[in-house]
Amino acid sequence: MAVDTQNKGYSRYSIWKVFLLHFLPPVVLFLGIWVLPYRQGLNLIEHPAETLRIAGVLQVFFSIVMYSFMSLKERRCPSVWMAIWRSILSLPIGAFVLIFIAIIFGAPWELEHRLKSAFWGQLISAIVVLPAGIVLGGSWLDWQRLFASTRPQGVLEYSVCIPAHGAVIGAWFGAWPMPLDWERPWQEWPVSVTYGMAAGYFAGEIISFILSVVKARNEVSKED
Amino acid sequence: MELKFKTRVLLLIFYISGLHVIAILFFTRGFLLTRNELPLFSHCNDLHDNVGCNYTMLNVTALGNTFNTVPAVRENICELDRGYREPPRIASHLNSGNICWTPPAVKKIVILIFDALRFDFVAPSAIPEDKRRPWMDRLQVMQRLILEESTRARLFKFIADPPTTSLQRLKGLTTGSLPTFIDVGNSFGAPAIVEDNIISQLANNGKRMKMMGDDTWLALFPSQFHQAFPFPSFNVKDLHTVDNGVLEHLFPALHEDDWDVLIGHFLGVDHAGHIFGVESLQMVEKLDQYNKVVEDVISTLQNESACGRLHDDTLLLVMGDHGQTLNGDHGGGTAEEVETALLAWTTREQTHPLPDQCEPSSANNVGFRSSQEEQNKPIICDFQQLDFAVTLAAILGVPFPFGSIGKVNPELFGLVTGSLQPSKDTALNSSEVDCSAAEWLKLYSSILCLNCWQVNRYLQQYSKSSLNGFSISDLDILKNLYDDARSFSNEQSTTASSARVTMSSLLDAVSRYTKYLDAAAALARFKWTRFNDEFMAFGIAVLFVSLLIQLKAVRIFSVIPPMPVKIEDSYIFPLKEMIKSGYNFAVLSAGIFVLVYVFSGGSITVSAGQFVMILTGGIVIGTSKTYLFRRNLQTSKKIYKIIMRNVWREDLHSNFVGILAIIFSCIHACSLLSNSFILREQQVVTFFLVSLGIMDLRTALQQNSKVLQATWFLILNFILRILSEATLSKDMVLQSGDIKPGRPVSPYTSLLQQLSFSLLTVYAPLILVGYAFMTKLSRSYFPTRHLKAIQHLLPVTYAAICLYWLVEDLENLQLKAVPESIRLFVRLQIPRGIYLCILLQIVLILLDLKRTVTKSEVGLKRIFEDASLALLGVLNAVVLLLLGRQGPLVAVISGLEAWCLLEKQSMYAPACESQRDDKAQIDYSSATVQWNLFSIQLFFCTGHRFSFDGLRYAAAFVGFDHFNIYRQGILLGLDTFGASHLLPIIGLQLLVSRRHVLRRNASDRFYKIQFSQTLLMFQLLCTVAATFITVCVAIQRRHLMVWGLFAPKFVFDAIGLLVTDFLLVLEFLYTTSPTLY
C-alpha cells in the first residue's frame, strides 16, 4: 500500500525504546491501582475513591513526564512549558467528557458518587486523553484521524492511540457484570469498569507494541 | 396467475406472522396454564334437598352421641363434662340457625406457617442416622409429640402442587384449588383473591381471625381479618424482622380470647434458604428457633387446656407452605420443593390410639418405617394441600369453598372429631369400639357426600361458564363415578334407614366417594398444573423456523437492490410451490402418523391437540423447506460474487457499524436469559443504544457531518433516562399513597409552584408537540385537501387534550370549583370526542394515500413522508391522552431523539447516486437496531414495566366509567404498546425516506424493496428477542422467579410480537398503496 512505501519513522526508535514506551505506562498503572494503595492499606473495592486518586495522580505525573519528553524529542511539541500547558488543558476536558460519556452509558449521576466519578475520570483521562493531548496538541485533524478513524502514524501515535482505544473498550466490557445480582462489592461503580479499563489498556499496549515492531521490521526490510 | 411484487411481500409478512401465531399459541398452551376464577361463593343455605345427602349424621345429637357412646371418654372428667356441656351448646347453635354445613369440631385453631419448610427438617425419611445433615430432623418437638402423645398429635407429609411459590400456595391452601399462572379473573389487576376461599368463609360466618407475619396475606385478603400484624416480606436479606414481629404478637394473643383462628406466618427459613442455602449455619439456627417456638406454643396451650379454660378445645396446626431445594430455590415441582410437613395437635385429650394405617389412596409412605423400629415409629400419612381448605372448613363448621376440589382428609378429621377410624389390621373385637367407629364412619361418609356434591357443583359450573372447560368425555367418566357413589349411598339410606348400617357398607360408601373425589382432583390437576413439554418444544421449534425464514427474507431484500439483473418476483415469495409442498408434507405427516398408529395397534393415545400439532408441523416443515432451500439466488455465480464483494470488501467499513449493531442486539437477546438483566433491561437497552450512538458519532466525525445531531442524540438519551427515573420515583410515592393520582407535584408545594410546574412540564411540551407536527405538515409539498383538513383538525385535538387536563387540574388544585355537570362532560365527552376525531383523521389520511397518484419518485417520497408524519401526529395524540401527565415531556425529548436518529441516516446514504447506482449496498441494520432499541427504551420511559401490576389500568378508563372488555382492552393495549410499538412502527417508514436517494429510472420498486427490508429487519429483531425469552422461560420453568419475572416478560414479549406483526401488515399496506405512473 502507498502508506508503507515511504518511511514513517517506525524504525527511528530502537526496539528497547519501543519496549519501554509500551512497558512503562502499564507498570505505572499497575503500581497505581494495586501496589501503592496496598502499601497504605487501601484497595480498589473498599476504598475506590482513595485508590483511584492515588492511581490517577501517579498516572498524570508519569504521563506528563514521559509523553512530554517523547514529544519534545520527536519535535511534536515546541517546549516544556507548552507540554505542561497542553496537559493542564487536556486533563480536565478529557475527564469531563469521559465522565459524561460514562454517565450517558448508565453510570450513576447522583452527587453522592461524585468523588468516585471524579477520580475515575482523572485516571481514565490520564490514560486516554492526556497522552494524546500532549502529543497531538490542538490539531483537530490529528485528533480526528486518531480517534474517529483510528489511523495512527508512527510509534508515538501508536502508543497513544491503541492503548487508549483498548482502555475505552475494556471499560465498556467492564460495565457488563454490573447489573448482575451477585451482590459482589466489585460490581459497584466504578470498580469493575476500572478493572476492565486496566485490562483493555494492557491489551492495547501489547497490541500496539507488536504492531510497532512489525511495522519497524517491514520498514527496515524495505530499506534493505 | 402471476402475483404482483406487493402481494408477494404482503404474503411473506402474513406467512411469518402466521408462524409466530402458531408458535406462540402452542407454546402458551403448553406453558401458561389457565384457569378461570369463578366469583361464586358457597353459602350456609345452599344445602337443600337436591343435595341428597344423609343429614342425620350431621345432626348434632349424633355427634353428641358419638362422644357419649365412647366409654373411654367418660373416664376423662373434662370430656365427660364436655359431654354434658356440649350438646346444649351446639343445639343452641342449631336452634338459632347458626350451624352451617357441618357442626364445628373445635373452638379455636392456631395455624403456624413456616415458609419453605422442607419435610426433612422435621423428619428425614429413609436416611440412616449417620448420614444425616445437621439441618435434618431439626424440629424434633414434632416427632416427640407424635411419639409421646400419639393420641392427640399427627404428623403429615404435606404435599403441595406446583408452582411452589408462597403467593400461589397461599391461594391454593385457602381456596382448595390449583392456582395457575394466569387466574383469569374479574379483578382486573388487584391481587386479592376473588374466588371463594376458606378465609372469606370464616369471616362471613362470624369467626374472628387474627393474622401476624407475611404481608402477602393482607394483599390476598385485604378486609377479612379481624386483626392483623403484617410485616414486609419483600426484603429477602432480612431474616428476623417478620419472625420477631410474629413472636412479639403471638404469645400475648394466645392468652387472649378475641379470636377463633390465629394465623402466624414465619418467613425466616425461606429467606435463610434464599440467601445462605439450606446447608448453612443460619438455617440451623432458624430451625432451632422454630423448634423452641413450637415447644413454647404447645406448653402455653397446654397450660390453658384445662377444662373450661381458654384452650380446652383448640387445634394447633404447624405447617409449611412448600419446601425448597438445597440452594434455597422453590417454585418448581421436584419432591424436595413440594414436600413439606403438617403437624396437627389438639389440646383435647383422646384416649384411643389413632389408627396406624393411612387411608389406602395415600398409604405410600414407606420410608419412615424402614427397619426394626417399626413399632416405635408412628406412621406419617400424605396430605394433599388441595385438601386443606375443605378439611379446615369441615372442622370449623363453615361452608366448603365453592371452588375447592379437595376432599376432607380422614386422618385429620378423625383426629379432631375424636373418633376412631376403622382399622382392618388390628382386631377390634370390642363392640363398643366397633360401634363408635361405625358412628364416626357415618359422620365421615355424610361429610364426604357433601364434599362430593360441592365438587360436582363446581365442576359443572366451571365447564358451563368458562371457555376452556373440561372435555365432555372426562366429565362423563366423573359423572359415572358420582352417580355410582350417590346411588349407592341413597340405596343405603333407604334400605337401612331403620336398621343399623353395617360397617362394610359404610366403608364401601366412603371408598366410592373417595374414588370420585380423587378422580376429580386428578382431572383438575391434569388440566391445570402440568406443563405440556411437547407443545412447548414445538412452539420453540416453529419460532426458530420463522427466525430462519426471516433471516433469509432480510438477506434477499438486502441483496436485491445492487443486483444488476432484474429478479423475478417469485423469488420473494414462491407461493405456489410453498402451498404445494406444504400440502404434501401435511398429507405425508398425517399418513405417517396413521401408519404408526395402525402398526402400533392403536396403543398410542393421541389427543386432538397433538394431532393438530403433527399436522401443523407438516405444513410448517413443507412450506419453510421450500422457502429456505429454493435456490433462488444462484441465477449466476457472477452476481453472487458481486454481492459478496460488496458485503465484505468495499463496504466493510460502512458495514462495520451494521454488523456491530446486529451483534449488540444479539447480546441484548442473550442477556434475557438472566433474571438480573431482565430486571434492568432499561439500562441494558440504553447501554447498547448509547454504544451505537457513539459509533455513529465516530462516523459523523469521520465525515464531518451531522456531528451535532449525533451528539445531541447521546445527550437526549441521558435526559430521557433522568426523566424516567424521576417518574419512577414519583410512581413510588404515588403507590405509597402520599399523593392523590392526577396531581403533578406533591401537595406540600405552594399553589403557584404547582401551577407553574405543570405548565412547564405538561402543557408547554404538549403544545410544543402539537405545534411541531402542525408546522411540519403545513410545509407539505403536495398539500391535498385531506391533508389540509388534518392541518386544522390536529391542533384542535391537541387543544382538546389540553382542555381536558386543565379542567381536571383546576379541580385537583382546588383553584376553582368546577360545576359537576361540566366536569362530567369534560371527563367523559371530551376524550370520546378526541377518539372520534382521531379516527376521522386516520380515515382521511388513509383515503388520501389510496387515491394519490404521482408521477415522480420525489413526489412519492414526499407523500410517504407527509402521510407518515400526519399519522404519527394523530396517533401520538391518542397515546399522549392515555399516557397522562408524564407523556408530553417524554414525547418532546424522545421526539427530538428520534429526529436526531433520522437526521443521522443521511450519513449512511450512498454518496452519489450516479456513481453507485447499481452497486449500492443498502444496509439498514444499524438504523433498525437503533430504532428497535429506542422503541424498547420508550416502553420504559413512558412508565411501563414488564409486569402485570405495572399495567396502567387507569389509562383504560380515560373517557369511560364502565368496564367493557373489548373497549377497555383496546385502550389498555394502546397505552401499553402505543409508545413502544405503534408509534415506532409508523415512524419506521421515515428511516427509509430520510436516506433514500432518488434514482433516475422512475420506479417505486426500489423504494418498496428498501422499505420491506426495514420492516422485515424490525420484525426479525423483535422475533429474536421474543425467541430468546421463550427459550429462557422454557429452560427456567422450574426457576424461583419464573412466575414473578420471566413469565410476565414472556407474555409481554409474545403479545408485543403479535402486535408488531399486525402493525407491520397495516404499515406495509398503507405505505405501498400509492402507485407510481
From TrEMBL, chain A:
<feature type="transmembrane region" description="Helical">
    <location>
        <begin position="54"/>
        <end position="72"/>
    </location>
</feature>
<feature type="transmembrane region" description="Helical">
    <location>
        <begin position="119"/>
        <end position="143"/>
    </location>
</feature>
<protein>
    <recommendedName>
        <fullName>Phosphatidylinositol-glycan biosynthesis class F protein</fullName>
    </recommendedName>
</protein>
<dbReference type="GO" id="GO:0005789">
    <property type="term" value="C:endoplasmic reticulum membrane"/>
</dbReference>
<keyword id="KW-0812">Transmembrane</keyword>
<feature type="transmembrane region" description="Helical">
    <location>
        <begin position="195"/>
        <end position="214"/>
    </location>
</feature>
<keyword id="KW-0472">Membrane</keyword>
<feature type="transmembrane region" description="Helical">
    <location>
        <begin position="15"/>
        <end position="34"/>
    </location>
</feature>
<dbReference type="InterPro" id="IPR009580">
    <property type="entry name" value="GPI_biosynthesis_protein_Pig-F"/>
</dbReference>
<dbReference type="Pfam" id="PF06699">
    <property type="entry name" value="PIG-F"/>
</dbReference>
<feature type="transmembrane region" description="Helical">
    <location>
        <begin position="155"/>
        <end position="175"/>
    </location>
</feature>
<comment type="pathway">
    <text>Glycolipid biosynthesis; glycosylphosphatidylinositol-anchor biosynthesis.</text>
</comment>
<keyword id="KW-1133">Transmembrane helix</keyword>
<keyword id="KW-0256">Endoplasmic reticulum</keyword>
<feature type="transmembrane region" description="Helical">
    <location>
        <begin position="84"/>
        <end position="107"/>
    </location>
</feature>
<keyword id="KW-0337">GPI-anchor biosynthesis</keyword>
<dbReference type="GO" id="GO:0006506">
    <property type="term" value="P:GPI anchor biosynthetic process"/>
</dbReference>
Automatic annotation (TrEMBL), chain B:
<feature type="transmembrane region" description="Helical">
    <location>
        <begin position="1014"/>
        <end position="1038"/>
    </location>
</feature>
<keyword id="KW-0812">Transmembrane</keyword>
<keyword id="KW-1133">Transmembrane helix</keyword>
<feature type="transmembrane region" description="Helical">
    <location>
        <begin position="826"/>
        <end position="847"/>
    </location>
</feature>
<protein>
    <recommendedName>
        <fullName>GPI ethanolamine phosphate transferase 3</fullName>
    </recommendedName>
</protein>
<feature type="transmembrane region" description="Helical">
    <location>
        <begin position="755"/>
        <end position="774"/>
    </location>
</feature>
<feature type="transmembrane region" description="Helical">
    <location>
        <begin position="12"/>
        <end position="32"/>
    </location>
</feature>
<keyword id="KW-0808">Transferase</keyword>
<feature type="transmembrane region" description="Helical">
    <location>
        <begin position="654"/>
        <end position="678"/>
    </location>
</feature>
<dbReference type="InterPro" id="IPR017850">
    <property type="entry name" value="Alkaline_phosphatase_core_sf"/>
</dbReference>
<feature type="transmembrane region" description="Helical">
    <location>
        <begin position="970"/>
        <end position="993"/>
    </location>
</feature>
<feature type="transmembrane region" description="Helical">
    <location>
        <begin position="1050"/>
        <end position="1070"/>
    </location>
</feature>
<dbReference type="GO" id="GO:0051377">
    <property type="term" value="F:mannose-ethanolamine phosphotransferase activity"/>
</dbReference>
<dbReference type="InterPro" id="IPR039524">
    <property type="entry name" value="PIGO/GPI13"/>
</dbReference>
<dbReference type="InterPro" id="IPR037675">
    <property type="entry name" value="PIG-O_N"/>
</dbReference>
<dbReference type="Pfam" id="PF01663">
    <property type="entry name" value="Phosphodiest"/>
</dbReference>
<feature type="transmembrane region" description="Helical">
    <location>
        <begin position="786"/>
        <end position="806"/>
    </location>
</feature>
<keyword id="KW-0337">GPI-anchor biosynthesis</keyword>
<comment type="similarity">
    <text>Belongs to the PIGG/PIGN/PIGO family. PIGO subfamily.</text>
</comment>
<keyword id="KW-0256">Endoplasmic reticulum</keyword>
<keyword id="KW-0325">Glycoprotein</keyword>
<feature type="transmembrane region" description="Helical">
    <location>
        <begin position="867"/>
        <end position="884"/>
    </location>
</feature>
